[in-house]
Description:
Blueprint lengths: L2 E5 L3 H11 L4 E5 L5 H7 L4 E5 L7 H11 L7 E5 L3 H10 L4 E4 L4 H12 L1
Parallel strand pairs: 1-2, 1-3, 3-4, 4-5
Protein name: Response regulator receiver domain protein, CheY-like protein
Keywords: Phosphoprotein
Organism: Vecturithrix granuli
Amino acid sequence: MAKILVIDDAEDTRDLVEQVLGDEHEVITLSSWVNVSHYIYHHDLDLILVDVNMPCLSGDTLTEILLKKVQSRPLNIVLFSGMDESELKRKAQAVNARGYLPKTFDADLLRLRVQHFLK
Length: 119
């Protein structure tokens, strides 16, 4: 069972991801970047899904900060957004995220893509 941290300001998205992935994985959800460091240092996370469009600190900026700050172990961070896929891909590459994941309401596709990033 993988441990997945989902950081998204939209409660419905957090709930949906937890509902879809929660049977197979331990899903932890946060509504903002505020407690992210605590979870990274105190939990052995297999995957971190970060929403790009969040207030105060964008997900791509948060990813860039985390990858620079946490050098003790590799972080498997994937940008997660409903924005145009080519723009999302560009942002993920720019901050050296592991990849990107378009927000989808297709449960099977979400499971499949998450499994890809857990390999």
